[in-house]
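We modelled the chain as a single entity of 289 amino acids. Its sequence is:
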Amino acid sequence: MASLSKSKVGSGRMKTFYAILIPVLVLFVAFNTFPLLTGVFYSFTNSKGYGAFDIVGLQNYLDLFSDARVGNSYLFTFKVAVVATILTNVISLLLAIALSSKIKFKSALRGLFFVPQILGALVVGYVFSYLFTWIIPALTGTESILASPDLAWIAIVVVLVWQSCAQTTIIYITGLSSVPEDVYEAGSLDGATGWNKFRYITFPLIMPSVTTNMVLVMKNMLMVFDQIVAMTSGGPSQSTESISYLIYNNGLSGGQFGFQCANAVMFFILIAVISILQTNFLSSKEEQL
């Protein structure tokens, strides 16, 4: 009787498991896998997004390497992603250390610093666009940097860092809170204070948090889109055209659907490779530290 009862319980659990898994799997395939495979198929065509099309094989992929506009979008995206990732992690780590110290209103300050993460990226972009276009020029008597092909990317970085620091700071705070207090006590007995305390005790122990943040932030920065739409629309003179924005803009309204599908596939592979390389490199550093 006992074994029969256990068998019924196990059978009931499996039914519950499948009842939860199957709908999720169907939705994942329908809204993720199927569109991905469809995009891969269209990347081998000359489709404009409507009407008839022909199979062109690898021609779209070969054309990517000779298209100057695509090349410029990759250069811009990587420049913004690298700078924003470094700034986000440095600022977030400093904020996390400050918010983990013994200060008043610690919980309230943590909640305040998390507010940017709650706000929509488009809303934030439009607010900062107004600041950069009207408020700051009025106060400084200078031209808006959004109108400068050489400086507009800086405004994009500022917005990205401002909004990304929220989640990154929380992850660093979690990592700092997991460091045992007795480790600091032992370090103090050995004379570790200030920078040495951070360099040889804190930083090695929060390396998993550093790895997580570096990978996630870099991936998010490479996919920058909303801020471009809200602030510059790729201008001036296509100087702030990110890869995602180029794929969206030219793929849907520029008659380059098949070509931009190939661009999207290449971009997807590139992000996956960068994430894997980052993870492997930083994981090896964790072991060394």
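As a brief sanity check on the tokenised model: The chain is about 80% helix and 0% strand. The mean pLDDT is 89.
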